[in-house]
Amino acid sequence: MVRYVLIGAGTRGKDAYARWIADNPDEAELVAVAEPQEGRRVECAARHRLSEGMLFKDWRELIDRGRIADACIVATQDRDHAAPARAAIAAGYNVLLEKPMAVTEEDCMSLVAASEEAGVILRICHVLRYTRFFAAVKSALDSGLLGEIAIIRHSENVSYWHYAHSYVRGNWRNAAGASPMILAKSCHDMDILCWLAGARPRVVQSFGSQEYFRADHAPAGAPARCTDGCPHERQCPWYAPRLYLNGTPMLKNLAFSKSLLIRPLASFFSTEPFDRLWDWKEWPSVTISDRHSRAARMAALQDGPYGRCVYRCDNDVVDRQVVNVQFDNGVVAAFILHGHSYQEGRQIRIDGSAGSLEGTFGFAGEELVLFDHRRGGRKVLWRNRSPFRGHGGGDEGLMEDFTSHVEAFLKGAAPPDEPGAARAALRSHLLCFAAERARIEGCVITLDEKGAAV
Ligand SMILES: NC(=O)c1ccc[n+]([C@@H]2O[C@H](COP(=O)([O-])OP(=O)(O)OC[C@H]3O[C@@H](n4cnc5c(N)ncnc54)[C@H](O)[C@@H]3O)[C@@H](O)[C@H]2O)c1
């Protein structure tokens, strides 16, 4: 049994990690929460039966109580990771820290050094490693099915609706307020590339920019908010009420599902005139207001950031980026990140001397196929037709793995060199910083033994 405290009871802290704790009472217990928003604190208190004395409005108050549990989850926003994580490490907690671990190279490096000095576990929430899909990819490579790996093509196809939600209207729209998109979204992907290549990244280059979601693309007569009588309501894919009330874009995405139940239902409710009938109360709609009724969500659109016209926001992060990486075992990787996809999901293709792997991992389902050079044909290694929840099993996998490592550590085992260990996470973060510098400065960057730019 591992006892947790939670800093930041938002979408990730409360709805992913603390939910896993509530669902696994034999494995874990949540004993305290620090969260400034009252509604979120109250919800945690009710779900985890916390007394008033175990609810804090700020992480500093919680840390001031000394170490009152075995592990601390830090799930605040990107720019508020380093300070509470450092304080939690200093207080002696094992720390589960949301990605990105910090928004500067210096903070990332100092957090890892601090955890090693304090002798505590620091784990970064690179949940992709714990998904069944990427576990199947890694296992195929480790078992030699592809022979010697030559090249990895990996793309993070952020759907047009997710991109608008998070990177135009939402929390990650502006690099100065959050972090560059390559760090915020794709430290996961850089981590996966390093893990699958099985080597250190040596050289990196990148191109990309924000080209589309700017005022000069706004159609004539579009008001500042969708709810102000926009004449383009029916044509605009980002029309906020359709996205946040009816969930039409997400249903259109689910219409690509291979599930025989989901596909017809999603097709029906995403097509006019039936698209006004569905009430979508899943992510991302549930994030725009603490109350989830239709009226509460509409009020949030009329007043808050998510009702804004996508061409009239204060966004500056890229809507397209490519990153090329050479690893020191000769593997080369090409990574694509963009916000214009018809459906949400990653695609990967790995080619080696003995075979190729092709996979899709997304909102509408998952599939991993092996092509063997000698035998020919195609063999499905993994398939999941259910819609995407909890990052394809990654959220639960991470919590199970971290909890069992902390439990073993408390019983005297050495801090494990587990997947997602802080040093590996640091390497992928340094790769993101280098890619971002390469993009902005238009240069090719060589990395040293530790992954830092030379
Ligand atoms: N691992 C993943 O796959 C993944 C996916 C999405 C987001 N994230 C990351 O998770 C983090 C959290 O994202 P989110 O969507 O849950 O954000 P969120 O805004 O919903 O949650 C952050 C919470 O921190 C709270 N907070 C702010 N100041 C605080 C303080 N002083 N003390 C305690 N709590 C405080 C906020 O009130 C909020 O409830 C972000 O860094 C994000 O990039 C990770």
Structure description:
With 454 residues, the protein is α/β, with parallel strands linked by helices. The protein has three domains: 2-124, 3-Layer(aba) Sandwich (Rossmann fold); 129-213 and 315-393 and 427-446, Dihydrodipicolinate Reductase, domain 2; 215-307, no CATH class. The chain has 15 helices and 15 strands. The protein has helices at residues 13-23, 38-48, 59-64, 82-90, 105-118, 132-142, 160-168, 181-184, 187-197, 240-246, 248-254, 262-269, 294-303, 394-410, 422-441; strands spanning 2-7, 28-34, 55-56, 71-74, 94-97, 122-124, 149-159, 201-209, 320-327, 332-341, 345-352, 355-362, 365-372, 379-384, 445-446. It has a nine-stranded mixed β-sheet with strand order 14-13-12-11-7-10-9-8-15. Helix 4 links the parallel strand 4 and strand 5 (94-97). Helix 4 packs parallel to helix 5 (105-118), helix 9 packs across helix 15 (422-441) and helix 11 (248-254) runs antiparallel to helix 12 (262-269). The radius of gyration is 22 Å and the shape is globular. The model has no long low-confidence stretch (mean pLDDT 95). The chain binds nicotinamide-adenine-dinucleotide.
